[in-house]
Amino acid sequence: MTTRRTFIKTLVAIPPALSFRRAWAAPDPSRLALIIGNSAYHDAPLVNPANDAKAVGGLFTQAGFTVDSHLNAKRADMMAAIEKFGAAAKRSETKLVVFYYAGHGAQLDWRNYLLPVDAVVQRQEDMKQRCIDLNLLLGQFSAAKDKTFIIILDACRNNPFGSAYRPEQKGLSQFDAPVGSLLAYATSPGNVASDGDGQNGLYTENLVRELSKHNTRIEDALKRVRLNVRLASHGEQIPWETTSLESDVFIFNEGQKKLSEAEMEKLIEADVTEWARIKSSKKIDDWVGYLRTFPNGRFAEIAQMRLTRLLADVEKQRVEQQQQDTAKADKLAAEKRQEEEKRKQEEQKRLEQERIEREKIRIAEAQRLAAERKQLEEQQLQEQRRRQEEQQRIELKRREEQERLDRERQRIAEAERQAAERKKQEEQRQLAAQERIERERIRVAEEKRLVAERRQFEEQQLQEQRRRQEEQQAAELKRRQEQERLDRERQRIAEAERLAEERRKQEEEQRLAAERKRIEQEKLAQAAAAKPVPTTSAAPSPTPKPVAAAPAGAPMIDIRAGLPVPLLIPPSDNPFSAGRYPLGRIYTIGDFATVRQTDILTGVEERTYTARVTKVDYDEDRVELNNGTIISDLMGNSIKSGPIEFDSPVQFTPAEFQIGKKWTATFRRTQNGQTTNAYYDLQIVKRETITVPAGTFDTFRIEGEGWNTSVSARLEVRFWLVPGLNFGIKREFVTKNKWGRFGSTERHELVALRQQTIQSACLTPGSGMARTLTVKSTCTG
């Protein structure tokens, strides 16, 4: 019988010449694939990577790629294969390059390392010298211009070095995809992936299934893979991708053409129909089905967020059921313990009866001995009493003699004390009489001296008072004269300033009137195209229920000019990535943002307005601001903005922030009875520090371009958002007609914000003031 252990030993024994390998002889030399699968590790062997590599290699061969496959490769073999692969990628005819690796991987100092089967690692330095730095492959790719690169790593198995060495961090490190590339991990950075119980690992099993579907964009396929693996692992393994692809990539190159307008409309209609069917659903299968059918649909980000909430509820129910099962087991164990206790009590009762009988016999014997002891003690007591009476008579006689001597000594001492007391009193009387006579003489002399001094002082005060009165009268006369002169001067200056201010106001009013007239004329001449106005709101709480007030002790955010801005996303320590953050919005009634709106072209401030949360309904996924004037979902996607209404939430806000993330927003917009159709293609382009009236913020910048197909208007939008804040920091909308003339050019900038609740699980104290808070980059929403 062949077991997994004997199978791995057999793989180790296969000579390199017989290893699974295909030459560069596929039909299409413009599409290359390097496949490596390592299973036969000495300290921590794996079962499925070799099978995974065979399955993926077969898939890409079937798709027409030129495939080079290696199983159980040593370091020298991997280095040679990568160098050869890099040289082939630089050829002018090469267009699409795919690298797939299955096996052990590890991270060190933010770099990712792939482990050859002959790697022996006992310390950090060994990893750098004996493993393959993924940057070696990326360096080969960076030298190849105008290519598209796909890197897929199923390399996050646990304990890659056995007991010899354990890395400080698990899994692989996050790495933002360079331009024109896509990086896919079997699980999220810092976590480990399952090797699987079947013929293939959990990730690769789903990867092969989804990539085998024709006419499927690789990004859509990977989203389905992530969904399937997440559900199959009950959330313990969630695949991760980062992309900077500049065009659609299909594994099966069948000359895919861009959808016609009719086909696009049909696809949108199917998307809308499915959304209308499930938008109020509480069933996980409905949202899973939507994401599988429309992985890049107009509601995909919203569906992902709602699925996350439903899965959290299921997990909560599972934990509660587990607690109930544990309680039942504890109850049965308690009943069993009670029965055992009852048996022990009966046994103890029998033993107690035997002990009582033995105790009765012992007591009878003790009573006999006690009677004999009592008789002896009475005899001893009588002798003791006789001796005590004799001693008492002797002691009484001694005390009487002692008392007589004490009384005599006291009488003599009292007589001596009284004589000394009489002598002392006589001396004190004589001394007191002398002191009284001396004090009286001194008092009389002092009174005479004080009377003379008081008379002289009163005469001096009278003279000084007359002199001061004369000086005050002269000074008061001079002050009144000076005050009258100053009053006349102030009246003259005030009159001159009033006349100058009136002239300045008249000139300013004339200038502003001319400027307003010019701006109105320019705007009336432009064709204003339809545009959506997003509102910011909050992400759902893990438990869907209406919120009326902030929970006690929740951290509060207060942002405005003059206050320090909280550090909500710390600078990334990873030099290869800007980090990944959940949306993290939690809405509370009373949250508000004050925003300044200006014209992008002229810089003229048009208005300042405030959006305040007046109602939050988690069951309906609905947030109302300004008493329903503005309505959004819990992610901050617009449903209504003043007179403008949308048929469904406009998917402007992503479920998580990560550079390179792409999605689409397609919607119908109705205003004053007129409905238009529009769409945006959006992407998180970079992490950027910006300054607005409220302060300076570290933000993620989102850019979108689209088209209003009903009025032939080109649409541009830019958002600057901070994870954890319910309102945007800055946003810009630009519309142009088909001739390139500007319609709307709006800029909205945050002036002030107050938010009563932020995910405390996602906060860490920052340095400096106590109000500084930081969202953890590892927090999941």
UniProtKB/TrEMBL annotation:
<dbReference type="InterPro" id="IPR001309">
    <property type="entry name" value="Pept_C14_p20"/>
</dbReference>
<dbReference type="GO" id="GO:0004197">
    <property type="term" value="F:cysteine-type endopeptidase activity"/>
</dbReference>
<protein>
    <recommendedName>
        <fullName>Caspase family p20 domain-containing protein</fullName>
    </recommendedName>
</protein>
<feature type="domain" description="Caspase family p20">
    <location>
        <begin position="29"/>
        <end position="160"/>
    </location>
</feature>
<dbReference type="InterPro" id="IPR011600">
    <property type="entry name" value="Pept_C14_caspase"/>
</dbReference>
<feature type="region of interest" description="Disordered">
    <location>
        <begin position="405"/>
        <end position="430"/>
    </location>
</feature>
<dbReference type="Pfam" id="PF00656">
    <property type="entry name" value="Peptidase_C14"/>
</dbReference>
<dbReference type="InterPro" id="IPR052039">
    <property type="entry name" value="Caspase-related_regulators"/>
</dbReference>
<feature type="compositionally biased region" description="Basic and acidic residues">
    <location>
        <begin position="327"/>
        <end position="351"/>
    </location>
</feature>
<dbReference type="InterPro" id="IPR006311">
    <property type="entry name" value="TAT_signal"/>
</dbReference>
<feature type="signal peptide">
    <location>
        <begin position="1"/>
        <end position="25"/>
    </location>
</feature>
<feature type="compositionally biased region" description="Low complexity">
    <location>
        <begin position="525"/>
        <end position="550"/>
    </location>
</feature>
<feature type="region of interest" description="Disordered">
    <location>
        <begin position="523"/>
        <end position="550"/>
    </location>
</feature>
<dbReference type="InterPro" id="IPR029030">
    <property type="entry name" value="Caspase-like_dom_sf"/>
</dbReference>
<keyword id="KW-0732">Signal</keyword>
<feature type="region of interest" description="Disordered">
    <location>
        <begin position="321"/>
        <end position="351"/>
    </location>
</feature>
<dbReference type="GO" id="GO:0006508">
    <property type="term" value="P:proteolysis"/>
</dbReference>
